[in-house]
Design a protein that fits this description.
Layout lengths: L4 H28 L10 H19 L3 H7 L1 H18 L9 H21 L14 E4 L2 E4 H23 L1 H9 L3 H6 L4 H26 L8 H14 L4 H22 L4 H15 L9
Helix pairs in contact: 1-6, 1-9, 1-10, 1-11, 2-3, 2-5, 2-9, 3-9, 4-9, 6-7, 6-9, 7-9, 10-11, 10-12, 11-12
């Protein structure tokens, strides 16, 4: 089959930009699931909640969705801290985190979706911004700004988190808490407090991820279900807790979905992407950047 170079190059570039967005929506799971071993399947629901807060700020007050999501980082962080406190007291301290904790987060996902349906209905919602619609043109390659802006914001978010994890005491404590809580206590840090901070950070990322989502596409309450499989697949494929692995896996998934959608139709893209996930894990069960 003779594939036009213009079509192929645009599909690859779109996949890279889409992969940047996937990295932003997955980075919170890399913290909660990869570092804390908390299977927060409600995380996509918080992302959609972030989309709706960006929608309100944009449509009611005229604020830019990205800037409003940054302003709302503290409330999302506090929400995450509160949720982890309930999870810790009700399940983790009792040793019931495996099944009942999973049901707890499923219930939160359901409550978020129902609450959004009752408040906003099932219609799709969108935002208005100067970068939604225009494109940059580099020769034969088109760069839609609605993908470029989320891509850049995603890199800024992941870069900030990486700096926090690498160069602050709290960041290093978060990385250590799942590996050796006793050693962490000897360093003068309380594991429960560190986990609350880490989970709060994971939920705070949903504010920005939600804003990037509604920039890329209109949203409705049930759209969170479409991302549950993707974000856990990216997190596992990249290596649990590895930010670098998350980015690489997100890029691979984005490129594969874009190529498949371009040449074979969008209905095939999830199957091909998850097929690649299974192949990767068969060769390297720990993921691309996980510890063997």
């Amino acid at each position: 089959m003779d594939i036009p170079f213009d079509l192929l190059s645009n599909a690859v570039v779109s996949g890279i930009l889409l992969g940047g967005f996937y990295a932003a929506v997955t980075i919170g799971i890399s913290i909660s699931f990869g570092m804390l071993d908390v299977v927060n399947i409600a995380h996509p629901g918080f992302i959609v909640l972030g989309s709706y807060t960006a929608f309100i700020a944009n449509n009611v007050f005229g604020f830019d969705p990205i800037l409003s999501s940054i302003v709302l980082l503290p409330p999302f962080y506090l929400l995450g801290v509160a949720i982890y406190w309930v999870y810790d007291v009700a399940f983790e301290r009792r040793g019931d985190a495996a099944i009942r904790g999973l049901a707890f987060f499923f219930g939160i996902l359901f409550l978020i979706e129902v609450g959004l349906v009752l408040t906003f209905g099932v219609d799709y919602r969108l935002v208005v911004a100067p970068y939604i619609g225009p494109s940059l043109h580099l020769g034969a390659i088109d760069l839609p700004l609605r993908l470029v802006v989320p891509f850049l914001v995603s890199w800024a978010l992941i870069g900030a988190l990486q700096l926090f994890m690498s160069y602050t005491f709290l960041g290093r404590a978060v990385q250590a808490v799942a590996q050796d809580p006793m050693a962490l206590r000897l360093m003068g840090a309380h594991p429960g407090r560190i986990k609350r901070i880490a989970f709060g950070l994971s939920i705070a990322t949903a504010s920005i991820a939600g804003a990037t989502l509604i920039i890329i596409q209109p949203v409705e309450p049930s759209i969170a279900r479409d991302y549950i499989g993707r974000i856990f697949a990216i997190s596992v494929m990249g290596g649990l807790g590895s930010f670098g692995g998350t980015v690489v896996a997100a890029m691979i998934l984005g490129i594969m979905e874009s190529l498949t959608s371009t040449f074979y139709g969008p209905s095939w893209s999830p199957a091909v992407a998850f097929g690649f996930l299974l192949m990767t894990l068969a060769i390297r069960p720990a993921g691309l950047f996980g510890r063997s």
